[in-house]
């Protein structure tokens, strides 16, 4: 018998086929059909799953379980997609029930993609051997997931871990808008997407930066380019980097002081910013932490397979 892990993202969908021993035996990818209505979207997914099974000499009827990781707020336990800013047409759709309908006889588990990644890293990656672990997704957006006693902590409705939207400056005048709708969440201050918006705002206010020579509007710039400008002495890029470091350190500390979990695993594109960027964050974190207990920060180890492995682990 076979089982499947599906990692649904805003631009691509990754599929993994697993044998009865939970070994990955086949993979494929396809483009995310952003324009399809929800039912058509998951029919597209079904066709891809069938193609992958056929390539491995299997049949759709051989699949006994399907785990799905997807961005957004996914209600537990029914798999209803409450919010999905990456694929807006899926919001407000009962994905769990529909998947059970189109894959009759297969066990179905659907959850937030950060939750899935946390399970994969805890069981097979950087968090292996740690009973308790925090997974932090650090990319265009930021989020987290919590593993306690080797099990994913979902919360009452499945939304646990959305710590990027914890409020840090709710009374401060809004600098940039976060889709969560609140002023002053961590994500609005230090995510990759939001820091570019801050830079654009500063330039509109008349502040100078060499980044303006690279692109028409700094909002289009990548965080790697911000780091390069910072390393070459650009003052405005330096301001952006210091802002990110300050709020990342506060974010990590607030998570730690609330949960007292000493293993953080980080995954996402912002890891490419390098040691100089991240080591300053860890230094500031240690400055806030007044106790002597050791807290470790590790990079995710499962690479491109993290999403499909984690999604598959939702079944167990």
Structural summary, described in words:
With 316 residues, the chain is α/β, with parallel strands linked by helices. It has two domains: 2-122 and 304-314, ATPase, nucleotide binding domain (Nucleotidyltransferase, domain 5), CATH 3.30.420; 129-300, Nucleotidyltransferase, domain 5, CATH 3.30.420. The protein has nine helices and 13 strands. The protein has helices at residues 38-55, 95-102, 113-124, 186-190, 192-204, 223-231, 235-259, 275-288, 306-313, and strands spanning 2-8, 12-18, 24-31, 63-70, 73-75, 80-83, 93-94, 107-112, 133-138, 142-148, 151-153, 263-267, 296-299. The strands form three sheets. Strands 3-2-1-4-8 form a five-stranded mixed beta sheet. The chain has a five-stranded mixed beta sheet with strand order 11-10-9-12-13. A three-stranded antiparallel beta sheet has the order 5-6-7. Helix 3 packs across helix 9 (306-313), helix 5 packs antiparallel against helix 7 and helix 6 (223-231) packs across helix 7. The longest helix has 25 residues, at 235-259.
């Amino acid at each position: 018998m076979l089982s499947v892990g599906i990692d649904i993202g805003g631009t691509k969908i990754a599929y993994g086929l697993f044998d009865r021993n939970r070994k990955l035996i086949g993979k494929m990818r396809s483009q995310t059909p952003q324009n399809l209505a929800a039912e058509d979207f998951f029919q597209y997914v079904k066709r891809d799953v069938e193609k992958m099974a056929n390539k491995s000499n299997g049949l759709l009827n051989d699949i006994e379980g399907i785990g799905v990781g997807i961005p957004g707020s996914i209600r537990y336990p029914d798999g209803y997609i409450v919010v999905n800013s990456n694929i807006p047409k899926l919001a407000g759709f009962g994905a769990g029930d529909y998947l059970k309908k189109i894959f009759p006889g297969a066990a179905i588990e659907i959850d937030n993609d950060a939750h899935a990644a946390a399970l994969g890293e805890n069981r097979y990656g950087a968090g292996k051997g740690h009973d308790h672990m925090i997974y932090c997704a650090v990319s265009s957006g930021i989020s987290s997931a919590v593993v306690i006693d080797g099990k994913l902590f979902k919360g009452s409705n499945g939304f646990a871990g959305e710590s990027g939207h914890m409020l840090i400056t709710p009374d401060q005048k809004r600098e940039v808008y976060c889709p969560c709708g609140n002023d002053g969440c961590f994500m609005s201050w230090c995510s990759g997407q939001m820091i570019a918006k801050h830079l654009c705002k500063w330039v509109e206010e008349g502040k100078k930066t060499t980044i303006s020579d690279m692109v028409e509007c700094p909002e289009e710039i990548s965080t790697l380019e911000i780091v390069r400008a910072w390393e070459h002495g650009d003052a405005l890029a330096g301001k952006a980097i210091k802002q990110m470091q300050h709020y990342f350190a506060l974010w990590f500390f607030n998570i730690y002081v609330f949960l007292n979990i000493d293993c953080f695993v980080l995954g996402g594109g912002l890891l490419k910013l390098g040691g100089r960027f991240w080591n300053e964050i860890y230094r500031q974190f240690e400055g806030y932490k007044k106790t002597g207990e050791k807290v470790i920060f590790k990079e995710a180890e499962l690479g491109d397979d993290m999403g499909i492995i984690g999604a598959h682990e939702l079944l167990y």
